[in-house]
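Complex record, two chains
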Amino acid sequence: MRFLLVEDSDDLAASVASRLAMDGHGVDRAATLAEAREFLESAPYDLILLDISMPDGDGRDFLARERGARRETPVIMMTASASVGDRVSTLDQGADDYITKPFDFAELQARCRAVLRRHAGAADSRRHYAGFIFDALSATITVGDELRELRARELRLLEILLSRPGQTFSKPHLIDRLFSFDEEVSDNAIEVYVGRLRRKLDGSGARLETLRGVGYRLIPE
Amino acid sequence: MTPAGAALPAGISLRRRLVWQFLVLSLLLVVALFFTVRFAAERASRASQDAVLGAAVISVGDGIRAVDDGLELDLPHATFSMLGAMGQERIFYSLAIGSRLVTGYEGLPPPPEVPGDLSPVFWSADYRASRLRLAAITRRVLLDNRMAEIVVVLGQTRYGQAAIARDTARSAVWIGLGFLLLAVPVALFAARAVIRPVDRLAAAVTRRGPQDLRPVRDPTPRELVPLVGALNGFIARLRGALQLAETFIFEAAHRIRTPLSLVRNEAEMALAETSDEATRQRLRRMVRAIGESSRSANQILDHAMVLYRSDQFAAAPFDLAALTASVLRAVAPLAEMRDIEIAAQGLDRPCPLHGDERMIEVALRNILDNALKYSASEGRITLRLYQADGMAHLSVQDAGRGLAKGDSDLTGRFRRGSNVGDVVGSGLGLTIVREVAAAHGGSFDLRPGPEKGACATLSLALP
């Protein structure tokens, strides 16, 4: 997926962009609304992450102009304002969703996924690996003719493993990315999802390998 | 929801003052009318009496003739009978030459000046305990070869005239009193008509919603324009101050939350990159603390908003089913993150309510946040919207850990359950919900679910 990140803070933009890149997304970053306009004219994007407070104007006005010109690229607003009124006004301007800073990155991912799924059709979210096709938006893998549905955490796990096939991911690392930091999670919790994903990948030509004491990795059989 | 002005110490009442002024003025007018009428009546009656008396005294004068052995007076009977016909009046006359009485009544009051022989002199005086109107004329007669000046005086009592004047004045008093009686409702009506624009203006300002800071544009009588101008000036200053405060809060939030967002993000990234367990624990605590600060800030803002809007309650019709559906859409990604399924029932038909939609939205978000927070992964939340006993009930049933024994009331400010130490929370969420319910005259109930978990029910009166 190709994202346009419109955010005036260089540090935050760099940080969010590298997180999105970890998930395998391509990210362009605009530091001003004018720059954002240029990016949008030069290339199609699947999703815009738009900060409300920009140095050269209000992100909501920018969004209203985009929608007024019938440019329907999905937009998630990022804002420092937590008020219901601001949220409602943002959605009224045509935003697809809204996230309040400081945000949980997992929540941003979940919201991106939900918005992209609603706009699915144009974007090709399918990916081939070994002997299966993975569709992150519809949360399915296709093995041969068989369509298998993934639950959210199985999907996240597969996404992470597929972002660097063959690389080993440690248990704590996977826990951090699968669970909210608000939850207290035992180290064994991950094994449940690994077990389930392994069953779903049965016969797919890929194998979820456990490296005892080190972690997990996805390799072709 | 009383208008703020009700508590003001009441000063003078303009309406009462107007009524009193009007009535006092009317009373003065009535008194003036009485005296005017009486004066006019007296003058009119005196004028008519003078006309008759004048004619009579002239005709008496004409009846004086000099004869050989003196004077002969031919009293004109027609004249006297005419004078006598005016009520029960008595008539007095005298003829005198110099100070010598020739004939008639003795001691009649003398004229104030020497009367001419063409136009009579008129005056009033008392005679024999009666008030008289008198007329006198001088007649010249050749007597003993000398010109004698005979002064003829004719007087008439004024009983009838006085009675007419009295009657007229009395009628004037009755008319005046009637007028005064009529003036009371007229005064009340006029005062109300004068005050009505003020009332209308007050009502227009009172009716306004808490966010309505437009200048007052209602039609205003010219005399109230300075007041409305001052009010509009004040509204404009207030709007300016509020905008400044809003801009400030917005800007401050942006300046604080953007770096906080960066800190959180960086900490999450550092977590992904480090394998040292002690460092990981520290980073996790950091991320949790940031999450907690942001959640608390959001809830404090929500709480302040709910308090403010309860105070400035502005109700409007809205559809609870549609609102619930939109809140569900907003929290759906959060539920999905943890594979929690939210089953909603009863949202397919509209549930029209009357209230503050923004407040209800905040309450719904807090109920659902709470249910999500305490639900286990892959848990199930059942949301039900139904109507019973004239109320709309929205119940949210989770399958989480439920309530600890003894935690009967968790809706107090900063109160948290005794079994939730491991979950981030501010203790404000349920307070907000309860306050929103109270502001709408509804209720909020949190009780253990039928098997496990907790069931939160928000009940609001149907319109």
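Note: Chain A touches chain B at residues 9, 11-12, 15-16, 18-19, 22, 52-53, 80-85, 88, 97-98, 100-107, 110-111, 113-114, 151-153, 170, 172-173, 176-177, 180-184 (CB under 8 Å).
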